[in-house]
């Protein structure tokens, strides 16, 4: 299938909230329903692989790494190159080796950041090749909580792309993909209040008003921006997310998107949703 989307996922066999490294985890330790989490993950997997015609790869889950299910943070891939993650929190650093091993097994060319620079993959770096006013592929990249600003220059060099740096200021939206979602054809969902003033101005300057939609606070808290945009097997653009208000659904449909809501409440307890559970792999 010529335009088939490729994703990496990790089954939630060892998923749970076992520590607190973001505000969503606070008070949720030990609260995950394992059967519910498995069912929600399988529904998401089915949606991508069967209903939408995407190809889904699986990285083996590892005991003692409950957040490995959030594959978006594993690294960033583009045209056969992969920059593996270097996690800020010690609780997640054990994920680096199994992810790296998987990337190497796929024949990807790995480019490592210098020691001491943190980078949490496609959680904090999102390609937007449909962006207006950009003569080459555009990479939106965040800093402030998990990823260091110093990584951005290396990402630009490794991938040969333009990098637009954005500063995050709200600890609830600790990764870029929790509050910012570039969609096919140059559209954007975002939560402006998650960014510093300079970053808000940058986004408003780079994305035409009719192509960006600021989600409500209620939708933001439901991680509506932690969504996955893709071109489905039939050629229609679609958006996969946890839940969305009627207002948001109507906005997306007015842009021509089919909206697929799939409950992911157990993963929200750890601060993740549809986008966190998937890593888009660039086709080669």
Structural description of this entry:
The protein has 284 residues and is α/β, with parallel strands linked by helices. The protein has helices spanning 34-51, 90-93, 96-105, 151-159, 197-206, 217-221, 246-254, 265-268, and strands at 6-9, 55-58, 75-78, 81-84, 109-110, 125-127, 138-143, 162-167, 180-183, 187-190, 212-214, 228-231, 237-241, 258-261, 279-281. Strand 9 (180-183) and strand 10 (187-190) form a beta hairpin. The longest helix is centred in the first third of the chain and has 18 residues, at 34-51. It is globular. The model has no long low-confidence stretch (mean pLDDT 95).
Task: Summarize the model shown.
The protein is α/β, with parallel strands linked by helices. It is 24% helix and 21% strand. The chain has one domain: L-arginine/glycine Amidinotransferase, Chain A.
């Amino acid at each position: 299938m010529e335009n088939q989307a490729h994703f990496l996922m990790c089954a939630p066999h060892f998923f749970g909230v076992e520590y607190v490294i973001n505000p969503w985890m606070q008070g949720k330790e030990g609260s995950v329903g394992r059967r519910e989490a498995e069912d929600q993950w399988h529904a998401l997997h089915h949606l991508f692989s069967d209903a939408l015609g995407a190809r889904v790869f699986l990285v083996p889950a590892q005991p003692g790494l409950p957040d490995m299910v959030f594959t978006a943070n594993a690294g960033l891939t583009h045209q056969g190159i992969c920059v593996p993650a270097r996690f800020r929190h010690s609780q997640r650093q054990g994920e680096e080796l199994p992810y790296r091993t998987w990337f190497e097994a796929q024949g990807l060319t790995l480019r490592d950041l210098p020691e001491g620079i943190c980078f949490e993959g496609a959680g904090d770096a999102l390609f937007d090749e449909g962006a207006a006013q950009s003569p080459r592929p555009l990479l939106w990249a965040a800093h402030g909580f998990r990823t260091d600003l110093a990584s951005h220059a290396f990402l630009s060099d490794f991938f040969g792309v333009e990098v637009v740096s954005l500063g995050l200021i709200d600890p609830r939206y600790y990764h870029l993909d929790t509050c910012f979602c570039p969609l096919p054809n140059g559209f954007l969902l975002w939560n402006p209040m998650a960014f510093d003033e300079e970053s808000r101005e940058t986004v408003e300057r780079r994305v035409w008003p009719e192509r960006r939609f600021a989600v409500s606070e209620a939708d933001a808290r439901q991680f509506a921006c932690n969504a996955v945009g893709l071109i489905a097997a039939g050629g229609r653009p679609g958006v996969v997310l946890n839940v969305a208000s009627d207002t948001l659904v109507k906005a997306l449909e007015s842009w021509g998107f089919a909206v697929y809501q799939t409950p992911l409440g157990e993963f929200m307890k750890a601060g993740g949703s549809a986008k966190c559970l998937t890593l888009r792999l660039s086709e080669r």
